[in-house]
Amino acid sequence: MLFMGLPEANRRRLDFIESLSDAVSRSTYTLTPASVSSGNKILVVTIGSADRNDNNAEVPTGVTYNGTSMTKAVDGVGTSLSDVAGAIYYLETSDNTGNLVISFSDTQSGVGVFVYEVTANGAAAPTQAVFEGNLSPTTVSFSGKSGEVYVGIHIDNLVDPMSGPMVDDGTIQTADDGAEDRFVRGMHKNNAAPVFEQDIAGAAADYLYASWS
Question: Are 151 and 169 spatial neighbours (Cβ–Cβ below 8 Å)?
Fold first, then answer.
């Protein structure tokens, strides 16, 4: 009998754990994930922020979990909307209790965070980490390989229908300003095909994504 690719037990796996939010204006956000597992894993957080105070969003200056600095995979300020920004951070850890502290150099209107875990059999650094800005139509083509796992974040001013192979992990409102609301959406996929496309209907928007193999 022939087996194609890695045996299931040896593949990476990425699991969505929980989402967290704080829609209060501040420059440092302290959030407490409640469902992180014990044992070795790569803890991954995708962060969407909005700044409706002066329409000048910023990426985090640093992120820690339980006092340990997390490593930035990718970040970017919105190109379709200048008052939103996103980032993906990760940390190989066995801790399962502690605060997630997200720091900015300036006051933001709010943050939305999605927490994931990746099995830690392999290098902690992602295979790829990419920012795709001002996409219109909002379709992203992912070039991966079988067994690879993906985590993504989408930032926009609308909650648009999503289609494609990635799992929708929900949408968080990061700022409430009448007709100028801002939203962040989390998504992930296990065992990626070599090439696949992900679409969110609507106007131009920004994606950030990272993968592990």
Answer: no
Q: Residue 37: is its pLDDT beyond 90? A: yes
Decide: 194 and 145 in contact? Cβ < 8 Å: yes
Helices (H), the chain: none
Other C-beta atoms lying within 10 Å of the C-beta of residue 142: 22
Q: Where are the alpha helices (DSSP H) in 88-133?
A: none
DSSP-derived 3-state class of residue 180:
helix
- Within 10 Å of residue 180's Cβ, how many Cβ atoms? 13
Residue whose entry in the numeric block shows the structure tokens 């700044």: 51
User: What is the C-alpha separation between 40 and 36, in angstroms, rounded?
Assistant: 11
pLDDT in tens, 132-160: 876 655 677 777 777 889 999 888 777 77
* Residues 6 or more apart whose Cβ sits within 8 Å of residue 16: 114, 115, 116, 167, 169, 186, 188
151 DSSP β-pair partners? 188, 210
